[in-house]
Amino acid sequence: MRRILGPRFFRRDALTVARALLGKFLVRRVGRKETALMITDVEAYLGLEDKASHASRGKTKRNAPMFAAGGRWYVYFTYGMHWILNAVTGPEGHPSGVMFRGLEGLQGPARLTKALRISKRQNDTPIARATGLWIEDRGVRVPKSRIKRGPRIGVDYAGDWAKKPYRFKLL
Question: Angle 155-149-167 (CA atoms, 0-180°, nearest 5)?
Fold first, then answer.
């Protein structure tokens, strides 16, 4: 069974979507080559109030895709060398999303974008087969016992928000 996840899946709160993405497959098509890898590690970002979120200081040119309705990609450049992939979640105007930290066999947000050739070209595009980057449900069910929940990585500047258990990882 392969079912492409549509906008309805993503138009929920970021914590729900983050947990639900574990065991789903990120699929990338470049030319005729299609690569599908299971999602194993994600972090949720909850909008304006979340001090670790790019949206916490309001809308900018960089973070504008986060303010769209869930079901789009937000891809940003960091440290002057890495692209980072996020799925926008929730309703339009409530900037939230899920960052991809790891896939089956690929750990680290920059490593996965490099391996899958994800860049600014995917920023602010729909999460859909037509764009060459989408997510599929292939019937894998992940029991709670296989999920480790903990704080996000690299957001110490966010104070108490850095300690919130918004990271979900498959064991």
Answer: 35
